[in-house]
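Appendix B, example 12.
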Amino acid sequence: MEKLRPEAARGEKVRIVIVDDHPVFRLGLRELIQQEKDLEVCGEAEDAATAWNGIQRLKPDMAIVDLSLKGGDGINLIKEIARHYSDLPVLVVSMHDENRFAERSLLAGAKGYLMKQETLTSVVKAIRCILSGKIYLSEKLKDSVLIQFASGSRKAEKTLVDTLSDRELEVFRMIGFGFGTNEIAQQLNLSVKTIGSYRERIKEKLQLNSGNELVRNAIHWVENQKLA
């Protein structure tokens, strides 16, 4: 079982931080959690930097993190949490397709993945599952993973996008949302030259011949993620 603060272990409320860039979703999630007698929301953030500062200051028992955050993504935040607070369990609640992002999230250090399309009540179920020391995945994803492993088709079903590193995927996603190279560099606190290098590597991995092709593919991919 994951370690909790001594106070939580003695029966006090489990303190949770919510990291999501949508205020309305944070509000709904907070109200849902606050209805549970043994759970409470101790902090909120809309970007990774604020979340990281809050986690250091508040020392929560658990974090709920979205993958799409202002000025960056949740994967890097999850990695930082896993690196510095290995006993702090993270539940990812995101709009992104679990078939593509659940594995990346778990490899980064998350203990569970839940899509926003699921009912909010599923969040409480996922929270309790993770706090009991287990990994939480939807029944659909569990079945999919088992079928893939049983048939030996897991590697064959990977797409070219799946070959991108976490940072490359982050840049690819931001391109799909319409951000230019300068904007991406500013938001990720990287140089324009570095973002240019990422763009070239993405084009190579996705077998694209031009910047226009990259933009079209990125936009198409983002739209498909919204529909998934």
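The radius of gyration is 18 Å. The longest strand covers residues 39-45.
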